[in-house]
Amino acid sequence: MRLRVYGIRTVWDTVGDGEFFCPGCGGDRNYRRLSGRRRFTVLGLPLRARGSAGPVVECAACRAHFPVGTLDHPTTTRFSTMLREAVHTVTLAVLAAGGTTSRTVLEAAAATVRDAGLDECTQEQLFTIVEVLAADTGPEGADSAAEACGAAFAIELHEVLGPLAPHLAAAGRESVLLQGARIALADGPYGQAELEVLSTVGSALQIGPDDTARLLAAAARTPS
Predict the structure, then answer these.
(1) CB atoms < 10 A from the CB of 116, how many?
(2) Has residue 43 got a pLDDT over 90?
């Protein structure tokens, strides 16, 4: 066995912890955030400082080290919550734009939200939320829920969909848009307000205007 006379050793200090999605394990794991100090060693004894190391994220399960940017990826649990919230927000925005008088549209909307994981969602709940939001945000004399909620939902869509979009593949972003399109089409062709909302959805999901228009046109040609 060959004796190692000198070398560099890194001493790690824990500066934080939590839960993250581990790329090595492929699932949610606990982590430690580490900051390191490099030391020049002789016969295993630290003698001189050789600068800092890290910070890095260490998985508690596989012990692998990853860049701190890994924490930007949502955990599986958080991602599922973000996706449910996205579908719910898109559904409410489409209903606010197209109105809540059509039973067919409400049925399609409730089914879409339940499929996204909110199992207890009902038509009555969606109707009530849209009407309350219209009354709360609409200026006096507003003619419809679409006019009352349009600006508020435009902001909400970007706030909810914006953080989700980078973590969805192109097919996933398109799926969220098309779920909204199918709700709008449940009672007939798109209304102008519905098209405007769906265009906002496409923009918030980082889908280009041309691709958004193409997807909406294709959905309109597809039998329900």
Answers:
(1) 20
(2) no
Sheet holding 45-59: strands in order across? 6-22, 27-42, 45-59, 65-67
Amino acid 192 reads: Q
**Residues 97, 148: Cα–Cα separation, whole Å:** 9
Q: Is the dihedral of CA 76, 81, 85, 88 positive or negative?
A: positive
Task: Point out which residues pair with 19 in neighbouring strands.
Answer: 30
The pLDDT of residue 44: 61
The answer to whether the beta carbons of residues 118 and 57 sit under 8 Å apart is no
Radius of gyration of the chain (CA): 25
pLDDT digit string (tens) for 50-103?
666 679 999 999 999 999 999 999 999 999 999 999 999 999 999 999 888 889
Locate the DSSP E strands across 23-157. 27-42, 45-59, 65-67
Q: Which amino acid is at 13?
A: D
Residue type present at position 209: P
How much is the pTM?
Answer: 0.82
- Does the structure show a pLDDT above 90 at 46? no
